[in-house]
């Protein structure tokens, strides 16, 4: 049994993915820019990412990130290309987990199938701390679309994972990214990857997927566009590798 390793590329996802070897990843787990948060083009493009996804009373000043202003046609074309490269890089039977909000769930399900992935289902993530919605229902869930490259190979990874998770986003000094996912959630999700396998994340952010992968004995290859967040991810991954 070898110790898990990690590598983080700083650059555009599509550009970097073209350089990665075919059949080198055992799973893809990623949280792309949602290009959401507004029902019209003006709303979607006039707000910063912080304005879209962070409540006004948030106690942090985390950096914005690029790539979050595509309309639906642009997003579908772009995501299809990204997921197509992820498909090439993945081994047969590799799973894909793709985070999305409710607005982008339909287009993401289309994009992953256009890229060749077999859609298997939706894994809801319940957020106990969520913004209230006057006159309606609290938007207390985001989702991970589950897909595979071909058939599910349960013999290689005979796990029984729940279809619903509940966890709050990190707060205070444990919050490193505007849209950061909970560490306890990510540690559960990475178990969909075969033991000792390698997880690919083309939108690494502050490195939460990679930290969870290393903690659970998986290797990690990530790509991050933002230099600031890439540096944060490197720091977190280094600490996780030596924990």
UniProtKB/TrEMBL annotation:
It comes from the Bacteria. Pfam families: N6_N4_Mtase. Keywords: Methyltransferase, Transferase. Its EC number is 2.1.1.-. The keyword Amino-acid biosynthesis does not apply. PROSITE patterns: N6_MTASE. Signal peptide: none annotated. Residues 26-234 form the DNA methylase N-4/N-6 domain. Belongs to the N(4)/N(6)-methyltransferase family. This is Methyltransferase.
């Amino acid at each position: 049994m070898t110790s898990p390793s990690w590598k983080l590329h700083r650059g555009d996802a599509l550009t970097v993915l073209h350089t990665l070897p075919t059949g080198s990843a055992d799973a893809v787990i990623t949280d792309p820019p949602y290009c959401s948060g507004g029902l019209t083009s003006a709303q979607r493009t006039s707000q910063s990412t912080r304005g879209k996804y962070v409540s006004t009373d948030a106690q942090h000043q985390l950096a914005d990130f690029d790539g979050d202003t595509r309309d639906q046609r642009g997003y579908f074309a772009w995501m299809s290309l990204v997921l197509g490269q992820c498909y090439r890089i993945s081994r047969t039977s590799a799973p894909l987990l793709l985070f999305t909000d409710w607005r982008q769930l339909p287009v993401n399900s289309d994009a992953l199938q256009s890229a060749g992935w077999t859609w298997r289902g939706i894994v809801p993530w319940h957020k106990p701390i969520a913004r209230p919605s006057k006159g309606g229902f609290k938007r207390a869930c985001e989702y991970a679309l589950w897909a595979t490259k071909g058939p599910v190979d349960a013999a290689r990874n005979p796990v029984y994972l729940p279809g619903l998770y509940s966890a709050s986003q990190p707060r205070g000094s444990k919050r490193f990214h505007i849209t950061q996912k909970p560490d306890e959630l990510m540690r559960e999700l990475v178990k969909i990857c075969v033991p000792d396998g390698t997880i690919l994340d083309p939108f690494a952010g502050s490195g939460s997927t990679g930290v969870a992968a290393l903690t659970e004995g998986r290797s990690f290859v990530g790509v991050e566009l933002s230099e600031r967040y890439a540096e944060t991810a490197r720091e977190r991954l280094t600490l996780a590798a030596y924990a």
